[in-house]
Amino acid sequence: MTKADLIKAVAERSGLDRRRATRAVEAILDTMKNAIAGDGGVQLVGFGTFAARARAARKGRDPKTGAEIEIPARRVVAFRAGKELRQAVAARR
Q: What is the pLDDT of residues 59-93, one digit of tens each?
């Protein structure tokens, strides 16, 4: 599902016109991005939790030369699925 597909689905399910659905989806995504980028996270009960985590520096290999390189520490986004989402995915086997 793309962002355009999501906007279309929100418009259809909520009865909003496409312009208002677009603003609603973009507002939600922007709010989530700001919360995750800050020190907080986003917890949607039943769906899952988005949070930023620290990833330590590590050694890796340059695939072209095979030389060992240092991969710097950084923050990455992590998602942990909620119970209802896990069950819904498992039921679709």
A: 999 999 999 999 999 999 999 999 999 999 999 87
Looking at the structure, tell me whether residues 80 and 92 fall in a common domain. Answer: yes
Does residue 5 sit in the same domain as residue 31? yes
Looking at the structure of the chain, the number of domains it has is 2
**The model scores a pTM over 0.85:** no
Q: Residue holding tokens 């939600």? A: 28
- Amino acid identity of residue 10, one-letter, is V
Contact 83, 45 (CB under 8 A): no
Q: Cβ-count burial of 32 within 10 angstroms (0-12 exposed, 13-18 middle, 19+ buried)?
A: middle
